[in-house]
């Protein structure tokens, strides 16, 4: 099984503030949907709360310490438990938030990274990406346009 992280980060590694995204980039949302559709997405409860509903055309697994039920999602209490439910799958996606990303970094084989070429004031940050561990295998740079107001890059990183 390939464990992949998919994340959009600012230049300063900010990924959110007040449980919300820091920017609106329709192309990044489309990119996320294209890559994750038909796969399992694993997220923390706060990330689920910020999305507000299960992501369509995906198996949704939510990690929380709370004893709760979420319609349309499987609820587990650890990343290890979430991954154990996926052992027959080809690729699973860790979609946030910061604490789940931090736990998953050591287990991850691939990172689908969107870098938003601007710094933002956030309260949630993505962990440092150590260049000695990751190699860039794909990159698409995009300039601002009428719908996407900030320059950004889609980058794929593979564990060395």
Show the helix and strand layout.
Elements lengths: L1 E9 L3 E3 L9 H11 L3 E5 H7 L7 E5 L10 E3 L2 H6 L6 E4 L3 H7 L5 E7 L7 E2 L8 E9 L9 E8 L1
Parallel strand pairs: 1-6, 1-7, 3-4, 3-6, 4-5
Antiparallel strand pairs: 2-8, 7-10, 9-10
Helix content class: 10-25%
* CATH architectural category: 3-Layer(aba) Sandwich
Q: What would you call the quaternary organization?
A: single chain
The first-level CATH class is given as Alpha Beta
Task: Describe what you observe in this structure.
The protein has 160 residues and is α/β, with parallel strands linked by helices. The protein has a single domain (2-159), classed as Dihydrofolate Reductase, subunit A. Helix content is 19%, strand content 34%. It has helices at 26-36, 45-51, 79-84, 98-104, and strands at residues 2-10, 14-16, 40-44, 59-63, 74-76, 91-94, 110-116, 124-125, 134-142, 152-159. Helix 2 (45-51) links the parallel strand 3 and strand 4. The two termini are 17 Å apart. The model has no long low-confidence stretch (mean pLDDT 97).
Offer a few descriptive terms.
single chain, 160 residues, alpha/beta, Dihydrofolate Reductase, subunit A, eight-stranded mixed sheet, two-stranded antiparallel ribbon
In short:
With 160 residues, this protein is α/β, with parallel strands linked by helices.
